[in-house]
Amino acid sequence: MIFCVEDDQSIQNLVIYTLQSTGFEAKGFDSGEELFKALTKELPELILLDIMLPGMDGITILKKLRSTPNTSAIPIIMATAKGSEYDKVIGLDLGADDYLAKPFGMMEMVSRIKAVLRRASKQTKDCITVGNLIMNPIKHTLTKNGQPVQLTLKEYEILKLLMENVGRVFTREQLLEYIWGSDYYGETRTVDVHIGTLRTKLEESGKYIETVRGVGYRMEELHDKTNI
Predict the structure, then answer these.
(1) What are phi and psi of 134, to 5 degrees?
(2) pLDDT digits (tens, 9 = 90+) for 40-75
(3) CA distance 50 to 61
């Protein structure tokens, strides 16, 4: 399902007709208010979002979509006025996946939608999931229950290694070598400190990182376990 948010009824009708005639299911909305009402009942594969809208403009809608857990990952293509470089840059900076400059051809629109959906599909397949943690190595992001988690580079690399190898035990020496490199001469205590801060940032999901006494650490997707 594709959602199109466009207040110009003639453009909206043409977009919906084109999408439906090329094999997509599509629904149109005149405003952000209508869009968010629909999102409580159904989540689309992609949203085609006009910037110039009555009431809530497209940039405000984009910010709200990206900051809401259940809509944060929905691919979004912004429709901007021709030559509006500012809107394009702002939209991409705020997380839009692509943009179309008005007036745009219907076949160009279909082509852009298919390309964005292909990228989104690949990124979803490339994500690593353990419990309520989802890591996207392509975008270098981590979410917990849909909310972003900010990690340092070393914390991220440790977690990525553990998430890619659920059940495997890594010694502190192995983690030092994998993450800091073989030429690093620091103490294994460095690993313990980073694991500690990682668990703190992951909050209740920190229990997925288990301490194996006398050996090191492993990742286990066991919801009833607690840290030891």
Answers:
(1) -125, 120
(2) 999 999 999 999 998 999 999 999 998 887 788 889
(3) 10
